[in-house]
Amino acid sequence: MEMRIGVFVGSFDPFTVGHDSVVRRALGLFDRLVIGVVGDQVHKPNMQPAVERMQAIQELYADEACIEVEPYYGLAVDFAKEQGAHYIIKGVRSVKDFEYEREQADINRQISGIETILLFSEPQYASVSSSVVRELQHFGRDISEFLPKKK
């Protein structure tokens, strides 16, 4: 039987409780889950270096043998193919997210045959985004409630 491999991709700056929720719920669907962290080629203001973002995620899932954390530099579908994955996992918080991800999923399937699985946000995380967490941090707020704790 073929190994079921999925990829969960993003900049993860920072990796939030919402991202963790998606990963934990996706674990049961796959034999191997690869978290693809956008490399340093993407220029967002004050973005943490990819190696630091990856290290934080690796530490969080150090006890999960089926999770790998890798950088990626191009299209998500190309990264998925490099990993031997047939699925891209995406989290959806709102109708706005849904419409964007639906369009991406359609194009990704058309150009690669790779399917996208949408996991809807748990209600308590529907307003949590990396950009909101970064803004709170910028203004000196404690963001610890928005960052996952190692289990």
Description:
This protein has five helices and five strands; from the N terminus they run E-H-E-H-E-H-E-H-E-H. With 151 residues, the chain is α/β, with parallel strands linked by helices. It has a five-stranded parallel sheet, with helices on both faces. The protein is globular. The protein starts with a strand and ends in a 13-residue tail after the last helix. The mean pLDDT is 94.
Supply database-style keywords.
151 residues, alpha/beta, five-stranded parallel sheet, 5 helices, single chain
Percent helix range: 25-40%
Strand content: 15-25%
Strand order, biggest sheet? 3-2-1-4-5
Kindly name the structural category.
alpha/beta
Tell the overall outline: globular
Number of strands: 5
Note the gap between the termini: 31 Å
**What is the H/E string?**
EHEHEHEHEH
